[in-house]
Prior knowledge:
The chain is α+β, with helices and mostly antiparallel strands and 123 residues long. It has one domain (24-121). The chain contains four helices and four strands. It has helices at residues 2-20, 38-50, 52-64, 115-121; strands spanning 27-35, 68-83, 89-101, 110-114. Strands 1-2-3-4 form a four-stranded antiparallel beta barrel. Strand 2 and strand 3 (89-101) form a beta hairpin. Helix 2 (38-50) packs antiparallel against helix 3 (52-64). The radius of gyration is 17 Å and the shape is globular.
Amino acid sequence: MRIAAFAGLLGLWFVAPAFAQALPAPFEDGGGIVCVDRQTAVDLLTVYDQDMALGENLLAYLASKGVCERATFSGKPVADRYDDHEGKQHEGHVFEVDVTDGVVLGGLAKAYMLLYVVHDNEA
Length: 123
């Protein structure tokens, strides 16, 4: 009985990271909102979640400062975990992306993409 319980726990230990890292596939010439750092991307996503129009206004302001922008580029998502203001870890909707083609935020090789907003604004 102990061996079965140990084997079950060991299996969960190996499987849990696979579920946590369910990243989108690499993409080519995809449009999206990107920011220079994770915290700004998370904050922008929070504003979009509360009010889309306010999110658009904030994006326009951040774009004027060179911090975030809408861009069309190719890339590979590499991480989706971030800490909120309370230090709790979250997953999803803000992805660290290695830019493989296209110019993002003046030529950055890595940016933070808001996947959730991209899907909501496609139509």
